[in-house]
Every structure is written in structure tokens, then in C-alpha cells.
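Sharing a chain and its predicted structure for anyone who wants a worked example. Both blocks are below, sequence first, C-alpha cells second.
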Amino acid sequence: MRKKYLAILIISLAAAKGECQFYYSDIILNKIANTNYVTLKNNKVKKVSISNGSKGAEEQEGLRVFETFSDNWGMLKTETNLQSGISTFSTTYYKNDKVWQKWDDGKNVNSLVRYTYDESGKLLSIISSSIDTTVLDGFFESHIFNYDNKGSLTKMYKLKNETDTTTIVFLKDEQGNIAEERWQRKGKTFENYYYYYNEKNQLTDIVKFNLKAQKMLPEFLFEYDEKGNVNKMTQIPFGNSSYFVWHYVFDDKGLKLGEFCYSKKGDLLGKVEYNYE
């Protein structure tokens, strides 16, 4: 069960939005997803199959993901199958080499995410909605992004069910990179995240102040290969002394071949492998 969870988590961290650090989860991961899409399109990939790449019988977790492009790479259908028998389906639509809509049809929950961009390709909004079909209870959330006259991100407004509003303020460093993310409600700051970069302006650390430890502690650490791909990511769960390390392997075309998750002690906890047609 633990390996199954970690194998799924590897995929979700690589392709899906995070639950915090909005600059990372909304802006950076959106750029990474769109870049990955362009790589697949440029390499004329029509089908992608993803599995946990198990070797021993005791490791056969049954994770299988199938992705198929159609409509001249304008639509992507994804089917995810688990050993438990649960299957989920999603359809992603692309315009101008960017994702603009994704529909997920899961067990009892349906969700829709829509993205809008300006003429230069900057992300303007992410509108998410979902409904639990068992109780007909819905959820709606909007992320609206503001930029200054130089095109730099300044604020994001998070509206939850059109009643709860949080303002996220983004501050830049001397190089123009987003260095701090402040969450505010009713004019008061209640959360801060800090971003650090290397000499190539590549994100290396996402840091948060830990009240228990009374010091700044990292939540994510990133390393890159010579082509600019993230080839190693370390995640330190908040308030936890343990951590997970993901290693990513790419071919010379930029296509991801595998993801490997290790424990703090260096034990292999899970992996997924990619095949392309």
C-alpha cells in the first residue's frame, strides 16, 4: 500500500497542482506542464503509457496510466487504472501550445479546470469547479492574477465559493524573480513563503518559517541538469524530520523516461516509467 501511494504521488507531484505555494503550484507548474506538452508535440508523440515499473511479484501494484493525443494534439485523453479496480478518466484541451481546459471524471467526483492567458502567454486565471455526485455538493474556486506594466506578477486573488477571498502578494528580488509570497486576508498577513534561485535564475528552494523550530526551513529543494530539466527534487513535509527525494531521468529529446522516489535513508520507495509511441 505504501509503495502504491508513493507511485501515485510521484505522478501527481510532477503533473498536478500543489496545495500551497501558489507561485509554484499555479505559475511554475503551469509553465512546466505547457513545456512538457510542447516537447511531446514536437516529438510527434501520440501515445504515452506510464506504469510503476515493478520487478518482483511483491511489488506488483498495478498502476497503469494511458494518455492519447488526438485532434492534431489539441486534445489529450487520460485513463488511470489501479489494482484496486478504480479507474479515472480525464480530458485535457490545448490552444496555442497551452492547456486551457481539463475535465476529470473520477469516482463520485467530477471536476473542471479552465485556464486563460493574455496575448503574450501570461496566465490570467485558473477557474476550478467540482461536484460530488453522491451528495450533489459543489466547490468553486478562482485564482485571478495581476501583473504590473512591465509584465511582472504582483498579486493573485483566490476566491473560494465566491465568498471567501484571500489576496496573495508577490515580491521580487533584485533580479526580478519572485522572492516572497504573502497571504493576506482583511489586510493582515497570515502566511509567507520564500523562493531562492541559483546564478541561472532557476528556482532552488521554497522555504517557510517553522514556528516549532523557530527558524526558516525548506519545503522543496530543486536541482537541474545541463538542459535545464529538474532532475532532482527533495520534499520535506512541513513539521516532519523525514523527507522524500525524487530523481527524474530524461532522454536526449527531453522526454521523461522515469521517476524514482527515495526515502531519507536512501531506500527506493517507488518508481514510474514512461513509454512513448
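Comments welcome. The chain has one domain: 2-199.
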